[in-house]
Amino acid sequence: MSSSKPNLTVIACHAPRSPSMPPEQDLNAQARELFSSLDEPLRPILLAARYPRILNKVAELWRRPTLLDCYFEELLMDTRGNRQGFPLSILLELCTLKEHYRSSAFPTRTGIWDETNLTERFR
What we know:
By secondary structure, this protein is mostly helical. It has one domain (8-13, 23-121). It contains seven helices and no strands. The longest helix is centred in the C-terminal third of the chain and has 18 residues, at 88-105.
């Protein structure tokens, strides 16, 4: 008998959407705090103005790297094949925010056996 555990990352990335709710028209407190904490060149000004619900969700997931990585992928990749996509200016802000998140806010962790760690350890 095999006891295989479900891959929670895959489940989290492909969780069903919540029931239809009215669109959020304003940034919530968490999103405003995140926005003001970012250096000016990183602030997603157009995203906040045109898609506040997205920035609200990013702020909600900010301290949950696996889930936010999944959310960024959902936003930036058309997995359903029928999406129009974001305007270029919004896309650039999302990519900038994602890059900042992955490189500075929550850098990708490396294992102790990665080549860069070995090089540093045995100098």
